[in-house]
Q: What sequence folds into this?
């Protein structure tokens, strides 16, 4: 067991997070990560707006083996916000939002008792995540999924850490993997 602020906040044994990758991170993978002591997050991806996406409610039912979460591409969730309500009925411990403004969803997430995790690709996005009440910020460079700006995660992490230390020291920081 490794104790960090992240493991304490999310009640997990290891500071490992399974990213909610669309079309990849289903309930079985999220459940396996949870059983191993990490935080498994089901990829809700495009919230059913693209053809061929797995049925989110079925995947969430498969994930219920510990502390699990669900993640969405925020701009897609804005098209079908009822998907958040459906996902929250499964009592995830967190909701992971990427690529858009999390603020319209923050109150519903908070009211359901879930923590908000926001992924950012630019330092300027941290303020929006903080305004939404993010419990954790995930910083993602270009090598982590090929998304976002034009910088690497390696220099982004300490810059984000310095920023959070000044503006919101209780907010957790996570580095996205490659």
A:
């Amino acid at each position: 067991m490794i104790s960090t602020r992240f493991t304490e906040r999310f009640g997990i044994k290891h500071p490992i997070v399974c990213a909610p990758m669309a079309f990849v991170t289903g309930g079985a993978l999220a459940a396996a990560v949870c059983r191993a002591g990490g935080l498994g997050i089901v990829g809700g991806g495009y919230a059913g707006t693209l053809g061929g996406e797995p049925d989110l409610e079925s995947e969430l039912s498969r994930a219920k083996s510990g502390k699990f979460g669900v993640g969405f591409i925020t701009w897609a969730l804005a098209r079908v916000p009822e998907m958040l309500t459906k996902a929250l009925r499964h009592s995830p411990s967190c909701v992971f939002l990427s690529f858009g403004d999390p603020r319209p969803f923050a109150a519903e997430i908070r009211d359901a008792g879930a923590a908000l995790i926001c992924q950012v690709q630019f330092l300027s996005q941290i303020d929006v995540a903080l305004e939404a009440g993010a419990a954790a910020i995930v910083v993602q460079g270009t090598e982590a999924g090929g998304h976002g700006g034009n910088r690497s995660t390696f220099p982004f992490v300490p810059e984000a850490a310095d920023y959070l230390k000044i503006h919101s020291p209780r907010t957790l920081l996570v580095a996205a993997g490659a």
